[in-house]
Amino acid sequence: MKYLLFILFFISSQLLYSQVLTSNGRAEAEVILMPNPDLRERLAARELLFWLQKITKAKLPLLALPSNDKNRKIFIGKKWAQNLFPEDLKALKGTGGYAVREKGDNIYIFGAKPAGTLFGVWKFLEKNTDIIWSRPNTEYGAVFTVTPNLTLTETNFRHKPTFWFRSWAGPGGVPDYTTNLWKARNGGAPQSTVRLPMRGSHYIHKEMGGIFAVGGGFMHGFLGKYMKTRPDFFPLIDGKRVISRHAQPCLSNPDVSKTLIYEAKKMLANAPEETIMLNCSNEDTWRSCECEKCLAPITLKDGSKLSPKSVTSEGDQLFRSTQTYMFLNKLAENLEKDYPGLPIQTLTYIYAAEPPAVKVHPSIMTLYCPYSTRNIRFPIHDATSKHPCHNWAKRFEEWKKQPSILALYEYYGLRYFNAIAETSAIDLRELAQAGGVGITSCETLQDVETSHYGFGRFSDFWDTTGMELWVISSLLWDPNQNVADLRDYYYKRTFREAAPEMKNFFAVIGKNWHDKNRKGVETCHSSSSGAFNRYIVIPGDEKVARAHLTSALKMVKHPDSKILIKRILSRFDDLAAKLGRLMIPSIPEAFIASKEFASPHWLKALVLKDFQLPRKYKRPHDPQNKTELRIMRDDKNLYFKIYAFDSKPGEITVIKKADKECFPLGERFDILLRNGTKGDTYLFSFDLNGNKYDAKEWNGQWNSNWSVKGSKTKNGWQAIVTIPIDDIKNKKGKISLEGLFSRINKHESNFKEESTYKGSTFSGYRMHPLNFK
Amino acid sequence: MLLSKYMRREEGIVNMIALEKMKYIVLFLVLSLTMKTIAGENNVVFKAKNFSDCIAGKVPSGVKVIETRDVSVLSLQSKNRINVFLKDIPVEPHIRYKLSFQVKVSGIDNKSKLNIFDDNSKLPSWEIRILDSKGRLPYEGYLKNSWQRCFSADWHNYQQTFYTPKTAAKLQIIFSNGTEGNSILIRDIKVIKIISDNILINSDFLGAEFDYSGWSELNRAQLIKEKGVTKLNINPGGYALTDPVPIALGKYIFAGMANIPEMFFYDADMMRINVKRIRNKTFSTPANIAYIQFFFSKGKIGKFSLKQIKTEKK
């Protein structure tokens, strides 16, 4: 019995030992990479070593041939596997999939394509450690536990992606190395449309498993260079040829078609190795040619005629779409012989999103783009739309029936808190069922701390949408995965000890986002603070959502998880602040303070100092003279104390104190209040002499029982205003205030300057919500 | 210096003819000394005088050493592939070496047909293995490229320049006769240490014909001769990458060509730190730099160099 136990112990310890990769931060394994490997296999080996060193603190050697050491050997790449695992390679053929296999003491990581090996290495790391690449940032984006004793747990698996087209696109001109690596580490294969000559960025793109296309828009990619020589290539609009790249070509001109085919062939002949697509899309404009031939009725296959109902593409999308796809069909037929099966990718966008009245060539890859009127909260098949004629569900159904290759062109780059992954899962499942090949999603911003293109700080995007992109990346490999499970995995690995609270936080957003009864049409252009308001504040979940974040912050121990939660909380607070709400404190002594400028109770009031010139073109934002406003309240009144600084107080011009109500035409201060977004507007204008004017809905006949007390000071003037709350309540007796505060600084010398809190303007009524604490 | 001393001492005694002769003698002595340094006579780390002493282990069948009074020649003759390993040569890490030798191939002359992009595995070839102190072959130490082929029926010079990896301890040189029953003769094998201000390899294209040393990746790119000058021609859609070469933190000057390359910077583990396009000819390397690589993608690449700008200590 003793012997039997000993033997069992020996066998089990040997089995366990054989799974050991590192012990006490010392390497018990080596990695082997053939000389002159494919660049993707080389990156695979380097990534494996890099992350193993980070996780285990052990430096595994990278060898060209296996050593004689009795250790575990990890072989990277297809060449090592081709004689050992032919079945795997057969199953993976033509895909970017991967297999990890164990044979004896050896591990083999490989794909039928080199990119497969790369994806395999990252999955191997994920399955055998607790790492997650939660966002691109190099300092805290990858979360893992340092594990000096690493034992392998999963060494036999194979996976191939449902979609080969797994593209994420970010805006150009911003450093994107780490963001592109994030996309790749999570299984993405972004598309790069190469304009020759190749650049280092193209090489790196390929190294990360990205795919190549050549071409571009009709004008930008092919015909724009004929601007000076062939004006007839350009559209005739309102009787004139519009010589611009930002226009659709004159599609009825036979030379346009011939030239485009010639240019396309030239591009393909010089295309970099492994170019898998020609991109040929309509330009991002509705401007289409109105020449006689372009507006001639189109004869369809059944002999019927399709006549334009309008000269513009906006007026007849079907006509223009049919015209475009007939043009593209001709290109496809011409390339078929020399480049059989080469997808010709085109943007099924704006009017070209309308399914045409002709069959689209099977080589044409239509990127169906429900831009930008689709409500992205809901799947395509039940998405509501801002535009009455954009029936995205019906269009999608019709595109599914076309013989062309189907893919989606999405805008998942949402810069606000959202729960897009569930929506995406439904769309992707539908796409897979229809034989679609995948998606490209644009505006996935780079994880950098700088602001570009008016999008604000790019890294903010990852605070709100990082998890969604991670989940969708995983869905692109298998859209039938359960989104809730993927989210749980993300919470656990990214937020560690705080996972339950972070789950609760995102559940709040998900609940409101997916609530069909909740109003809100969201697109990639929705404002971040607006969406925050619609799905967190208006449903009344702000406090509870924030409490989940603060609680998560208390629970979390992992330093990187802590940073990630802190960032989300900070983004949450930023968005809350962007709503411009002002919290007015309730001070029981406020009434006493209203009698006295120097009362210390004013120190407890809300202080607004940021008075700026209203935002107008080419004007500096700082006013010449500063203003400070303090607000507080009690149960009965709102109290305002204004301190209007002036460097030349002697020059202030102000009208004499009138006996009755009169509009203070000189130096003055205006308080504009509104009870609810669509409620009544109240104006209170006054000056330092105590002249005052009030109006409700601009009706000066209305009078409030308000008071003003003003005085001149050494460096300006001051006033205390008391407004009874009852006077500004709505019919139901409720109060939900917004305010706008403006000072008109006027001197005898014709100097006049208006400054408002935060530079808000009366025109457009961008008012600040006033909340009662 | 010597010449001036001599002149002072012997002034008035030596006639002008003798002085002229002396000038030439001194000049010859100085030149030969300099040449020795440049050619690396002092830097020779290996020279195969007698192949009988150079072959590692048992001499494989089909391999003969032909000794004459002047030269020692290694002969590989077999219907099958034979690999001959020379004895290990001690080397230092991160040092530039040049291997050179002559080969004559019987029954083949594919010189005009040689294309580095073809599968040339049937041709006679050589490879270099740079082992670490534990006898392991690191990935960076295995130099086996498609252009390392022997193709000429006449005696032909071959050479390869390379940096040793950071773990380098010893060098192995392996010759193979290929798989088509070729017989080959090898002579004049030499390994020298190269010291140069230009930290790049073969960026002057002055090496032997078909010497692609220093270029780790070529895609639709190859060496061409234009008016007697060797250049690297990159066809549309192609690119060329130099070897990643060791580099220290500092200021450098890139010189010699109009085509602007991009630079890939790597850390000690060959993880990419940054990518930069050369805008100014002088630049500073970023923190944590350990290797640099140049990426070219356009036109004909002529001679260029990369040198460190040494700042004098005050």
Number of strands of chain B: 21
Portion of residues in beta strands of chain B equals 35-45%
What's the helical proportion of residues of chain B? Answer: 10-25%
How far the N terminus sits from the C terminus of chain A, by CA atoms, comes to 76 Å
Number of strands of chain A: 36
What gross morphology of chain A would you assign?
A: globular
Largest sheet of chain A: 8 strands, parallel
Query: How much β-strand is present in the residues of chain A?
Result: 15-25%
Provide the low-confidence segments of chain A as ranges. Answer: none
Q: Radius of gyration of chain B, rounded?
A: 23 Å
First-residue to last-residue Cα separation of chain B: 29 Å
**Low-pLDDT regions of chain B:** 1-19, 27-40
Q: Helices, strands, pairings?
A:
The complex is a heterodimer of chains A (773) and B (314).
Chain A: H1 2-18, E1 20-23, E2 26-27, E3 29-33, H2 39-56, E4 62-63, E5 72-76, H3 78-81, H4 86-92, E6 98-103, E7 106-110, H5 114-128, E8 132-133, E9 142-143, E10 150-151, E11 157-159, E12 165-168, H6 177-185, E13 191-194, H7 200-207, E14 211-217, H8 218-223, E15 236-237, E16 240-241, H9 254-269, E17 275-281, E18 298-299, E19 305-306, H10 317-335, E20 344-348, E21 364-368, H11 392-401, E22 405-410, H12 420-433, E23 438-441, H13 458-475, H14 483-495, H15 499-513, H16 528-537, H17 542-555, H18 559-578, E24 582-584, H19 590-593, E25 606-608, E26 611-612, E27 627-633, E28 637-645, E29 668-675, E30 681-686, E31 692-696, E32 707-713, E33 716-724, E34 737-746, E35 752-757, E36 768-772
Helix pairs in contact in A: 2-5, 9-10, 12-13, 13-14, 14-15, 15-17, 16-18, 17-18
Chain B: H1 2-10, H2 16-39, E1 44-47, E2 63-67, E3 72-77, E4 83-85, E5 89-90, E6 96-106, E7 125-132, E8 142-143, E9 156-163, E10 168-176, E11 183-193, E12 215-226, E13 229-242, E14 245-246, E15 251-255, E16 262-266, E17 272-277, E18 282-284, E19 291-296, E20 299-301, E21 305-308
Antiparallel strand pairs in B: 1-11, 2-3, 3-11, 4-10, 5-10, 6-9, 6-11, 7-8, 7-10, 12-13, 13-19, 13-20, 14-19, 15-18, 15-21, 16-17, 16-19
